[in-house]
Design goal:
With 127 residues, the protein is mostly helical. It has a domain at 37-121. Helices cover 46% and strands 0% of the residues. It has 5 helices and no strands.
């Protein structure tokens, strides 16, 4: 019985610790400033996706990214789920050796990528 006592103690301690830790709620992006679609995200899209001719009015690709609705629908944006959003994946994950926008254009800066990420995480609002 003496040999089992430490095992039982560690089991109970581990179980209590596990369930106590699971009860903490973390609310992401609450301490961060709101990212505005019109003031921050759309200018990033305009300078990197539409001005290059790919997704603008003189598009070379199959769709435009000229409005909030275009970005949400054609960009495959899933509000509050940046990693599940097509737009975030194409600017962060290399496809055929490069990320969007493709060469000779420069990829988005880390700050621009973070702004897009936060905007989606905060609900991809039309603000």
């Amino acid at each position: 019985m003496m040999n089992k006592l430490p095992s039982i103690f560690y089991f109970l301690f581990g179980t209590i610790t596990f369930f106590t830790a699971c009860q903490q709620e973390v609310s992401p992006a609450t301490d961060l400033p709101d990212v505005s679609f019109n003031q921050t995200v759309m200018p990033i899209i305009t300078s990197n996706c539409t001005a290059s001719g790919c997704h603008g009015s003189e598009r070379t690709e199959n769709f435009t990214l000229l409005s909030y609705d275009d970005v949400i629908n054609h960009g495959g944006v899933s509000a509050a789920d940046a990693r599940g959003s097509k737009m975030y994946r194409v600017i962060t994950t290399p496809v055929s050796g490069s990320v969007m926008p493709p060469p000779p254009n420069q990829p988005l800066t880390d700050e621009q990528t973070a702004q897009v990420y936060l905007w989606i995480l905060q609900g991809a609002k039309n603000n």
